[in-house]
Specification:
By secondary structure, this protein is mainly β. It has 2 domains: 22-80, Roll (SH3 type barrels), CATH 2.30.30.100; 89-272, Porin. Helix content is 11%, strand content 53%. The chain has an 8-stranded antiparallel barrel. A 6-stranded antiparallel beta sheet has the order 4-3-2-1-5-6, with no helix packed on it. The chain is elongated and about 115 Å long.
Length: 273
């Protein structure tokens, strides 16, 4: 009986020792490769490990952006998140922004924009324009405009696995957007096309860059190509030889003719929680 007990104990200890010796962590990389290792350190942006079969236990560092999953020897699994996608990196960033377009003020309009971050790669914004509330309003224009946009940052397009901007709103971007303007003129004699009023819808893409200063101020510079169309009512004056019907516009942050326009802007903003 004693011999049987000792034999069982030896076998049990041998099995435990075998399990301990062969216990290992497994790193699954994003390319699908799995490596059996012993993890030494798990830092915010890298993993330090050595290979199980390395007698010298040479330590190797791997960027965590290259890893899909880590399975520890005791069974726990940890899914990796790309640094740019981890919301905890931006928990202290102010994610709301109110901007005023200074280039539009110099061109007969006041335009205010509200922007909110969606994630580190994108944001949405909405703008309201008051036409006539700016400098150089010789045509005595009045009216309003609305605009909606979605901003996709270049880092989110081309550096998806390791994109991490210094601030959640900072960076270069591509911005599809659509808008509407409705404007009337009390003194249209200064126009190339002498309109009584017009309204139109426009849509296109802007390219720009937004800088964030000390998590408080923003500076946004952009330009883009838009197409537009709508209703344009000319002054009814037979002697008006300059009243050429090619639907020219020059409204705050958008200028063009023949249904093609350039949109531009220099905006200064204030960030808040």
């Amino acid at each position: 009986m004693k011999k049987t007990f000792y034999t069982f104990a030896v076998l049990l200890m041998t099995a435990c020792l075998h399990i301990t010796v062969n216990a290992q962590d497994v790193i699954e990389q994003k390319n699908g490769e799995k490596i059996e290792v012993r993890i030494v350190e798990l830092a915010d942006d890298f993993v330090t490990y050595y290979h199980i079969d390395d007698p010298n236990k040479v330590e190797i560092k791997m960027n965590r952006s290259l890893i899909r999953e880590i399975e520890f020897e005791y069974g726990r699994k940890e899914q990796e998140v790309a640094p740019g996608d981890d919301a905890s990196y931006y928990i202290d960033d102010k994610q709301n922004n109110i901007m005023i377009n200074f280039s539009a003020i110099a061109n007969t309009a006041t335009i205010l924009t509200y922007e909110r971050a969606i994630d580190p790669k994108s944001s949405w914004s909405a703008s309201a324009a008051i036409h006539g509330a700016g400098i150089n309003n010789e045509e005595e224009r009045s009216g309003f405009g609305l605009n909606a946009a979605y901003k996709l940052k270049f880092g989110g397009l081309f550096k998806k696995n390791d994109y991490r901007p210094p601030h959640i709103l900072h960076g270069g971007y591509l911005r599809p957007n659509i808008g509407y303007n409705s404007i009337s003129f009390d003194n249209p004699s200064f126009l190339i096309d002498e309109y009584e009023d017009y309204s139109y819808v426009h849509g296109g893409f802007d390219i720009g860059k937004e800088w964030i200063l000390n998590n408080t101020l923003s500076l946004d510079l952009y330009g883009g190509l838009h197409y537009y169309g709508g209703s344009f009512n000319l002054v009814e004056d037979p002697s008006c030889e300059s009243c050429l019907d090619y639907e020219a516009i020059n409204d705050g942050n958008i200028s063009g003719e023949d249904n093609v326009a350039f949109k531009y802007g220099l905006q200064l903003g204030f960030l808040f929680d």
